[in-house]
Amino acid sequence: MMTRFTKTQRLGLVAILLLAFALRLYRLGVESLWYDETVSALLASKPLASMWAHTAGDIHPPLYYGLLHLWTGLTSSSEFTLAFMSLWFGMATIPLITYLALQLYGPRTGVLAALLVAVNPFSIWYAQEVRMYSLGTFLLAIVLVLSLDFVQWKRRHAFQTLGLYVIIAASALWTLYYSAFALAVLNTFVIIWLLLRDRQRLWPWLLAQIGVLVLYLPWLPNALRQVLDPPVPPWRDAIPLHELLLKVGQQGSTALAFGQSLDPTVGWAPSLVALFLALAALRAPARRWGDEPTWWASGLLWVTVIGPVLLIFAVSALISPLYHVRYLSLYNAAYPVLVAVGLLHVAGMDDWAEISTRASAPRHWLRWRQAISVIIGFFLLVGTFISLRNYHTDRFAYESADDLRSAVRFIYDQMGPRDAILINAGYLYPALLTYWPGDIGWLGRLSDYPPPGSEIESGPIVVLTGHVGGDSDIGWGDADSDFYPISSKETADSLARLFADTNTVWQLRGYDTVNDPGHFIRSWLESSGELMLNSVFPGQTSVRVQVWRTTPTTRSQFTIGHSLPIDFESGMRLLGYDMSPPTLQAGEPLRLTLYWQRTGAINQPYKVFVQLLDEGQNVISQDDAHPGRGEHPTDQWLPGELVESTFILSAPADLSTGEYALVTGFYDETSGERLLIDGGGDAITLRSFFFEP
Fold first, then answer.
1. Which of 420, 616, 632, 685 could link 502 by a cystine bridge, Cβ 3.0 to 4.6 Å?
2. 494/627 same-domain check
């Protein structure tokens, strides 16, 4: 029996690998990281000891984060390089699947399986995500290959095979706890197989499992504590059994074949076709090593795909909700092989039965079968194309994607120097730290506010809410935990102090029902504050930025750092400004918040200019925008309303010694003509600086 690829097949595999690389490289790192990905970026930026301590109080093991830390240390922390490590593991999985198909079914199946996994949207999705799933899939694929090697190759390299198996299986557990479901199912299959066919080899296999446990022992106490007493609030609701079964069946079958970017209600037909082919693989002949039944290979592959899913389903139904479609990607390595086997079997082109099939079957019947298989293959490619188009054109409409980058940048571009940021603890602060371009002055718990003055550095105050009314075990009482319980009274008192100390509070909202299931914070803000802005950003969780102020909007009751009342001829008054930092610094951004009021009729939307001028009146830096970055156009101001807007000037790094002036004013965007100030002039000098390096 031929188990090697022909020259043509080898060239085809090279082309398939290039196609797979292109599909995984396309738009890599273009979209915003979503919440889980920002956690990966944050943990990878920590020293290894700090990363280990953080993951010990979280819900995932540390191996992936450690590898990502080393990788970014060699490259950079951009979205592209962060995701490229996942791409590498996604690419490395393809030769493993090809080898598996080759050994079990032959070279033709190996080539087709490689093509199917190369274009599989599920594989492409997680090869572009800054998470541990492609690494987990890669490790479990190696485990499957090594298990097959041990079972079928008898004494050949048995010691080396088991030794490598121990290292890889332990690494899979150090990567994802969900790897345990795959290892449990595979072990059950192998143990039963050895009991029936080769009991002599059972003990070496069992000893190898002990070796896996020994390598996992350093992390085992953390794993048991996280499983038995989770430090995080529950974020998945229990699903009724019949709904869970329907979700696993419909959503899971679609995801395995076409990924998460094909709606199951639309993709059910091609998903059923793929499922039919995978089931047809049970009738396809596999390579024989003695008297094995013809279905043994497809049975093994089916067990590795469906077995872990059934275990997750059982735990979710009986103990705690664990199911999420993303975890099926871990067990997806064998599914393209099953679909490839089924497709070739329908076409009558099985590698191991090729001679007998062609000799006994009528030629016209073989042609019909091949024509049907071509139609089926085309049907599968159409489903794949639609899923990939959806993924790349509207990823924010699908599971997990949230445009956190734009949300954080929106806050940065408009936030004033005397504002604060309120964030759900443990959920969105990694996104803020990942995408915030400048420094953070202070980041801490709402229960620890206000911080000592000496702890506040340059940058905004960031306050993390706790789990309102949560169980005292949340976060295990660790002062460094992302999660902590807080009473409703303490929440209200701390929020009142926060609003009393700041002009404006920016709230980055998302997943807030987890930490605030009773909507206490939302109700407090609505009853005690004034909502100035509410911007929703694309994504499944509708992440939003809200701006709250507790003081009335009249000037007499609003604190402005530098009062400077100056009237314009067109019915506008500049009340004053706030600035941070208080002095001009080379290479550092200068944040300026201007405050205005309407004093008369304003007939059109005027634009604001803010400039930094040198001694020769040359513009060194400039920022132009409509008030509120377009949220508060001048012709929509209400009488007596206080309007504020923040501008950012970038001082050059090579700023030379001399006098500089900070000026502002309004102009007509259409004509470019500036508005005049009462008393003369068309620009207000807010402040003069003398800079000396």
1. 420
2. no
